[in-house]
């Protein structure tokens, strides 16, 4: 894993397909609102399902006039489509499939050893500056306080 992207640095732009195979571009998202990037290892796993379920269940906090949220994993769009439909995830789940984990690498949350991203949480301002960044160790769940700290950074 490289170093986690630092608060105050410029977030690398990217375009990735979502679960509906629609192209999603970070700079387009940040034109309108701050954007929370939620990197997760793999679909159909307990911790990932629970974490994204929290976003689903508290969606007005994560998708509103000042903030939008996207989840990012190395899984392919068809897998994300089936999983998001089954779980009722209404927010974009982006595929960092190919080049494998390239966006996660740019943000410093890709585990070469495991071949997937860590549980990274990055808040990007409208000017694409990083307002908040955090990552859990490989195999570790995201600390519950991460959500509150990330959402608090939206208010800054």
From TrEMBL:
The active site of this protein is located at: 48 (cysteine sulfenic acid (-soh) intermediate)
Whether DNA-binding counts among this entry's keywords is no
Task: Please state every residue range assigned to the domain named Thioredoxin.
Answer: 5-156
Q: Which SUPFAM superfamilies match?
A: Thioredoxin-like
EC number from the UniProt entry:
1.11.1.29
| GO molecular-function terms, A-Z | peroxidase activity
Give one Pfam family, short name only: AhpC-TSA
Q: How does it assemble?
A: Homodimer. Forms both dimers and octamers; a tightly-associated dimer and a ring-like octamer.
> Family assignment?
Belongs to the peroxiredoxin family. AhpE subfamily.
| Protein's recorded name | Alkyl hydroperoxide reductase E
Q: Which organism is it from?
A: Gordonia araii NBRC 100433
């Amino acid at each position: 894993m490289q170093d986690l992207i630092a608060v105050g640095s410029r977030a690398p732009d990217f375009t990735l397909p979502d679960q509906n195979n629609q192209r999603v571009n970070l700079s387009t998202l940040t034109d309108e609102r701050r954007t929370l990037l939620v990197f997760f290892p793999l679909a159909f796993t307990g911790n990932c399902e629970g974490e994204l379920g929290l976003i689903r269940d508290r969606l007005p906090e994560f998708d509103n006039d000042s903030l939008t949220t996207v989840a990012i994993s190395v899984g392919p769009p068809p897998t994300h489509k089936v999983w998001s439909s089954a779980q009722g995830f209404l927010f974009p789940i982006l595929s960092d499939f190919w080049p494998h984990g390239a966006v996660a690498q740019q943000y410093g949350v890709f585990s070469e050893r495991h071949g997937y991203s860590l549980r990274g949480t990055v808040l990007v301002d409208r000017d694409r500056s990083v307002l908040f960044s955090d990552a859990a160790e490989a195999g570790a769940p995201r600390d519950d306080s991460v959500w509150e700290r990330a959402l608090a950074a939206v208010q800054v």
